[in-house]
Fold this protein.
Amino acid sequence: MRAAVALEEIEAARARVGPWIRRTPLVPSDVLSERLGRRVSLKLEMLQETGSFKPRGAFNEVLGLDEKARRRGIVGVSGGNFARGLAFAGAALGVPTTIVMPRSTPRHSIEATRRHGARVEVVESIAEAFRRADELAEGGQTPLHPFDDPAMMAGNGTLGVELVEQAPDVGDVVVSIGGGGLMTGVASAVKALRPGARVWGVETEGADAMRRSLDAGRLVEIEITSIATTLGAPWVSERTLAAARELLEDVIVVPDAAAVHAIEALMDAGKVVPEPAASCTLAAAEALGDRLGDHVVLVLCGGNVSFADVVAWRRRFA
């Protein structure tokens, strides 16, 4: 199995999804540069349609289906951001979409997914959500995976291409890991276009299936306890595990408290409100310290967080 996604596949995905997605800005941060002692830029992917990077891969998945598969409708599993991205893609392309979501999904994510036109089923757990999606697939709907799909990864890789175009001198990229589809696409693009750049993966404690799998030398299933629910894949895949081994310098795990404090820092420094799955990149960069080089790009992959969430986390981790 080839771990990295070929640059040709990412460029093909870029041509395919280009009419449907935004080219998100990359902005320098003087405040964070001073804080970290090196030049820091923010890739504001949270400004993507639906509030996260997910439409990049979702559109590439759906556009790659034949007409028969589209007519049958599509089904996906998600605790939040993939649900919104796939629902948006399905609605834009006229494809009936069903999303199965665990009960732990924030209400605002469920409501947003319905607003994008998808039919939503809520079940008790993420494991049950995958089982229910399998049942719907057996009934004829076309299943689309939230991270373990080469088309999803190639679509996500378009973010990495943009990043290198916007920051051609980038030395280090810090990117979050849920199931690993974002990391695989971004790292594949960055390493292909700028081989000397280093890519660092980040997880939060209680959503660290990749770190545990790397340490164990095999796939490890975990129980999700982190507040970073959009990193809440209880397992990674053989493909994304191989990509982490091949493409990443390391996978850093940070506590939820550090991710919350990083939200506050990014609000002050960047005037943005990322979700913990994105703010954890700043927490990881601070933990890495002098292991980082002269120009660091933090990928802020999503901002689907409510004011009530931020207030509750601030009280919890004050």
Q: What stands out?
A: The chain has a mean pLDDT of 95. The CA atoms of residues 108 and 306 lie 8 Å apart.
